[in-house]
Design goal:
With about 160 residues, this protein is mainly β. The protein has one domain: Glucose Permease (Domain IIA). It is built from 1 helix and 10 strands, in the order ββββββββββα. About 30% of the residues are buried.
Length: about 160
Amino acid sequence: MKMHPITGTRADKVRSPVRTGGSTGRVGSYGMTRDGGTRKHHGADYLCQFGHPICAALDGTVMRAGEEIPRAGVVQDGRKGYGYRVYLRHKVTGEGRKLETRYAHLGVIFVRDEQFVRAGEVIGLAGRSGNVDDDCPTHLHFEVRINNNATDPETWLR
């Protein structure tokens, strides 16, 4: 049985956050800079239709669910960064590393803080909240963090 290299769980227990049929590609990749700047993109952006189900990638507990509150009142163009978002905390990996996944720009959230969710369970619906520009298509911003350090979600999902 193949084990996931990061979580130490069975590889078939790790799910894509966008259910089959909803993803039409990516609009943003991990590590790319934005608008020619130096700020790195810490996740991958998966194109999907407005209202498409967004799922937990792995069993976990909801750390935060709701609208992002900007630090020190900082907003971009009057919008909040992640908008409606869900952060999930997962079991610590075999090497003692803390694992977290983040789902941003949702339109609707179905979970609440401290709720346990299973891999593949719908946690919300795709939306356009936060700093999604008018000319940017609807997408899910998905992050994977190990010990609070961002890692490439594409590598993690394999």
